[in-house]
Amino acid sequence: MAKYKTLNLAMCNGKIINQLSTTEIHMLKNNAVNYIYYNLAEKKIYIGETNSFMNRHSQHLGEIYSTYDFKKFSGCVVIYSKIFNKSSILDIESLLLNYMIAESNDTKFTFVNGNIGQTKLVYENKEEILTEVFCPLWKDELSEFGLVKNNDIEELKESLLYKYSPFKQLSPKQREISRQIEKQFNEKYLIEAPAGSGKSVLFTTLAFALAEKYPNLKIGVITTGNLINQFNLIFKSVGLSNRLVVKTGSQLITEAKEENKFYDIVIVDEAHKLKKYYTKGHPNSRRHLSLGQNEIQLLESISKGLVLLYDSYQGIKPQNISPSEMKKMTNNYIKLFMKQQFRIGGGSDISGEDFLNGILYALQLSDETSFDRNVFRSDYFNIVDNFSDVIEYVEEHSHVYPELQSRLVAGYCREWASNSGKKSNKGTPFDELPYDWDEDGIQKRWNSTYVDWVKKRNSENEIGSIHAIQGYDLNYVGVIIGRDITVENGQFVAVPSNYKDVGGTPLKKEFNLNELSSYILNIYYVLLSRGIDGCTVFFEDKKVEKLFKARIKY
């Protein structure tokens, strides 16, 4: 016996035109239900939950300030069940929104929902609701009604549109921070949060909540270049592409200067990548900066409120504003913190917080020893002896879990010989470009693109650099720690000759080996914190491996 039932209502100018039975009318008046309004011709969707559909339907028809006239919906699917309660219908509402947004680039649906602002729901029959209601509903009825195109829930779950949906359920801390900023959006905030703590979810949720709550608010949204397309697709799916256009810091600042724009608030994801004027940086990345300037100063000059989502361990090059500079510049900011770990550990029993603290300690980026070293003896983590072993780890998981994202990443310890933009490679077909890696009889190239690299089909055959992977999640990650770092007198030290990121080394006249060492160690912290379900590491320098193992007692 099915755990739920559906009723597909046909509508004309807001009126239900079905011939309803007495029991159907009773259900619509008195039962806890989920419902999906739709207009397939206009590609409009609204998803909700209520304890009385008839009352809620009347309220929708009477809404004056709605972004869409509910009388234009041509139909509504109502889902009901004897096992529904308030928590379960709230959960299903969130699931439907997030999964439908995940495939919105294919369905082209626009969602007219407001911000639901849910915190994470825990209730007795949560697993039953997921497996016995949501999954069959998604694969059967919703597909039949033309509301779903992709029946593969696991594949959708891996998309960035799902992961960063503005309808994700928030942790109590994320919700608390969002509400504080919504009330006081003219203030300046520094939100310090480690990798995997939900910065990007807070980024989209906060921007959406502000846009919905204050229709006239001028909002600027900033992230890194490799994530812009995904965030713009998210805001397009909720009908906000005319108000929330995600840009890089340099793009937003340049546009504001040229068009004399001023923002009520600017929200910056990955704020550790904000830049200062640096003569060695790429000309395009410093064109908007004058000598002595940095992007925080310029953002403060074009906005009243400013929100910086920041991890001090993710600055990876001299052009980034350093932690000490950030501390000085944000001295008068409201300081908020998020520590809960949502990425690392997947469905296992290991503590993501312990793993991340252990990585920071292992890399000598932190002296904090209060972490459980057992996380490094779990199935989640492994150190292998050979280059071929880490390749095999990624390939094996790609074959076993084709719907998941398993990728190989590395420190910037090889020249980018395969760069199609090089003069020597001009006109060379992709398959004939030189290889960047040739180890153990295995040849590999660096990432062929930075933008959305993880999503590109050929990325499984390439090695991702820090610039292609920062900000992304992976399921299983293979990490190559190269010879750009070594050990001297018990300390990790950079090897400048083996570090190949031209824009990543300090200027010769002010070269500082400790500074370069910190950048490279930060890169490895980022790479080692990408994996949701597993992380395997290969060390090229065995001295580095020995010290790393000793610090975590591996």
Characterization of this structure:
This protein has 554 residues and is of the alpha/beta class. 34% of the residues lie in helices and 19% in strands. It contains 20 helices and 21 strands. The strands form four sheets. The chain has a seven-stranded mixed sheet with strand order 13-21-18-14-17-16-15, sandwiched between helices. It has a six-stranded mixed sheet with strand order 2-1-5-3-4-6, sandwiched between helices. A hairpin with a 2-residue loop joins strand 19 and strand 20 (491-494). Helix 16 crosses helix 20. The chain is globular and about 80 Å long. The termini are far apart. The mean pLDDT is 91.
Summary keywords:
single chain, 554 residues, alpha/beta, seven-stranded mixed beta sheet, six-stranded mixed beta sheet, 20 helices, globular
C-alpha Rg, in Å? 25 Å
Helix content: 25-40%
Instruction: Enumerate the strands of the largest sheet in spatial order, edge to edge or round the barrel.
Output: 13-21-18-14-17-16-15
Distance between the termini: 51 Å
Topology:
Layout: E1 5-12, E2 15-16, H1 22-30, E3 33-39, E4 44-50, H2 53-62, E5 75-80, H3 86-102, H4 104-107, E6 110-111, H5 126-139, H6 141-144, H7 153-157, H8 160-163, H9 172-183, E7 188-192, H10 199-213, E8 219-222, H11 228-237, E9 246-247, H12 249-259, E10 263-268, H13 283-286, H14 295-301, E11 303-310, H15 323-329, E12 334-337, H16 352-362, E13 381-384, H17 387-400, E14 406-410, E15 437-439, E16 442-446, E17 462-464, H18 466-469, E18 474-481, E19 485-488, E20 491-494, H19 513-528, E21 531-539, H20 542-552
Parallel strand pairs: 4-6, 7-11, 7-12, 8-9, 8-10, 10-11, 13-21, 14-17, 14-18, 16-17, 18-21
Antiparallel strand pairs: 1-2, 1-5, 3-4, 3-5, 15-16, 19-20
